[in-house]
Amino acid sequence: MAMIALKAPDIRVTVVDMNASRIAAWNSDSLPIYEPGLDGIVKQCRGRNLFFSTDVTAGIRDADIIFVSVNTPTKTYGVGAGRAADLRFIESVARTIAEVAEGSKIIVEKSTIPVKTAETIKTILAANSKGLEFSVLSNPEFLAEGTAVNDLLNPDRVLIGGEHTPQGERAVRTLADIYARWVPRERIITTNLWSSELSKLVANAFLAQRISSINSISALCEATGADVDEVAHAIGCDSRIGPKFLKASVGFGGSCFQKDILNLVYLCEKFGLPEVASYWEHVVRMNDYQKTRFAQRIVSALFNTAADKRIAVLGFAFKKDTNDTRESAAIHVCRELLAEQGNIAVYDPKVPAGEIISEVLGKNAPANPRLSVAKTAAEACQGAHAVAILTEWDEFKTLDFKKIHDGMIKPALIFDGRNILDLAKLKAMGFRVHGIGRTLE
Ligand SMILES: NC(=O)c1ccc[n+]([C@@H]2O[C@H](COP(=O)([O-])OP(=O)(O)OC[C@H]3O[C@@H](n4cnc5c(N)ncnc54)[C@H](O)[C@@H]3O)[C@@H](O)[C@H]2O)c1
Question: Beta-carbon neighbour count of residue 8 at 10 Å?
C-alpha cells in the first residue's frame, strides 16, 4: 500500500487494522516491521495520501477498492487442523464489507488464500448486499521479506485474476491501471480467478521445493565428501535449472512457505488427489528433517551431550534483513538444544530479546535460565563450546573470529547453518568446522 501511495499520489490509501498498537507504530517514528527502504517511503507519503487508522468501518465505507490483506494462518482446530487455511479473518472482513458498504466496490484478495475463496466472499456479499455491485479480484502478493521494496518497485510480474464478465473485466482494468503507473504493461498478467489464486500457492510450493531439494542433497554431500555449493553451482549453470534459490541451509522459515504448502496439500486431499498431496507434503517433511539434522549434528559433535554447555546461536530472524521470526529454523534448533539441556545464548541484530524468548519458550511461559539473549555476537560467543549461525546476516561474515576463538572453550566448534563463512580459514584458526553439505578433510 505504501508503494501504491508513492507511485500514485492522486490515490488516497488508508491502511486499516483492528490491532491498535500496530496502527500506532505505523503512525510513529519506529515502524512495526524492519524492511530496508520502507521507512523512507512511509515518511514521504504518510499524511499526504497514505493514512493508518483503526477505523475499519470508515476505511471500508470510504474506499472504492478494498485490498483484503488479513492473516490466513494454518487452522489449528477442527476439520483440516494443521493443514487448511483458517479463513475466519477473510470471512469476517467480507461480512463487514457487506454490512457497512454504501456503494459499489472492487474487493481485491491480497492475502494468500485457497482456490475458490473468491466464491466464498462473493456468496457472503451477494447474500447481504442491499443491491450493491461488488467485483472480487485475486491479486496475490509475490514480494519477499527483506527485499520487499525492490520487489515491489521492479516486480517480475503482477498477477490479477478476475471474472470474464463485463463487470469483472472492468474491475481488472481498474486495478491493472494502478499498477501500470510504474510496472510495464507486459508484466501485468491477467487470468481467471482460480488460476490467480492457485498460482500463488504453486509459486511458493515450487520455491520451497527447490530449497528442500538442495537440502536433501546436502545430507548426501556430507555423507560422500561432495560440496553442496559446488553441486548447486554446477547444476545452476544449466539454463533449464537456473542458479537462484539453490542455497543449502538449515531450512526455510517465514510465515508463508510451510503454511501455503500445507494449504495446497489440504486442497489436493479435498479434491481427491492423495498422491499429489503426499508429493508436496514431503517438501515440508524434508525441511523438518533438515532442521532436526542440524541440531543433532551439534549435539553429536559435542560428544553426544549438550548438557550444561554454552551454545551461541547467531541470528534468529528467518532470514537476513527482516525482523520476522515466524517459523524461523532458529526456533526449532533452540528448542532441540534446550531439550538436550544446553545453555543457549542468542544474538540477532534486529529481533528484540522478549520476542526471541517467547518464540522459543511459548508466550507467557516462565523464564528458562538456560535461554539468554546477548547484546552482541561477541558476547554470545564468549565462553561458548559451540557457535551456530542460523541467519545469514552480513555482519556475521566479518566477525573477529580469531578473538571469538580465544574466548571459547576448546575444542571450539562452529556450525555454519547458512554456508556464509570461509570454513578453511576458520579451521586454520583452530575451529572445528561444520557447514551444510560441506566437509573439510
Ligand atoms: N508476509 C509476507 O511476506 C507475505 C507475502 C505474500 C503474501 N502474504 C500473505 O498476506 C497475508 C497477510 O500476511 P502478513 O504477514 O501481513 O500477516 P500479519 O498477521 O502480519 O498481518 C495481518 C493483519 O491483519 C489484521 N486483521 C485481521 N483481521 C482483521 C479485520 N477483520 N479487520 C482489520 N484488520 C484485521 C491483523 O490485526 C494483522 O495486523 C497472508 O495471507 C499472507 O500469506 C504475506
Answer: 16
Give residue 72 CA to ligand 1 midpoint distance, Å: 7
Pocket test for ligand 1, best of 22, 71, 156, 324 (most atoms within 8 A of CB): 71
Rg (CA), the chain: 24
pLDDT at residue 128 in the model: 83
**Catalytic center residues:** 256
> Pocket of ligand 1, candidates 55, 70, 138, 355: which has the most ligand atoms within 8 Å of its Cβ, to mutate?
70
- Answer yes or no: are the C-beta atoms of 98 and 105 closer than 8 Å: no
- Tell me which amino acid residue 239 is: S
Among 406, 409, 437, CA closest to 423: 437
- pLDDT bracket for residue 441 (50, 70, 90): low
State the pTM of this model.
0.95
- The 3 state secondary structure assigned to 334-348 is HHHHHHCCCEEEEEC
Extract the C-alpha cell encoding 293: 539434522
Residues facing 137 on adjacent strands: 108
Identify the three-state secondary structure at position 354: helix
CA of 270 to the centre of ligand 1 (A): 25
